[in-house]
Amino acid sequence: MSHRPPRSGRGSDCGPGGRELQFTKHPDGNSTGNDVFGDGSFFAILTPGHTSYLARTTTGPVLLTGDTSHTRWGWENGVEPGSFLADRECSRNSLRALKALSERHPKMAVKLGHQP
Q: Which of 31, 81, 82, 113 is least surrounded by CB atoms within 10 angstroms?
């Protein structure tokens, strides 16, 4: 499965577009990811319909949920971001996968899509 990250900037004259990332299924079935820079510092996580990332920082790992979870309440209560989604079940599965990842790594900081 592949995913093309969104282009940065405004318009096509702002530099090259994103490159297509290839995702392979992790043997444990819990998550899939792609080492964006190839150095183990920043991973794109396959969350269909959204873009989520895991950053390895000097203070520890940070999960960036993107639009998989907009609010702290939604994250804590397992509620995906609204009825405007084309595929709510897919969105629920993405949220569950990120929650499971954070539960396996309790020291990982979680940064939500629309809240600090």
A: 82
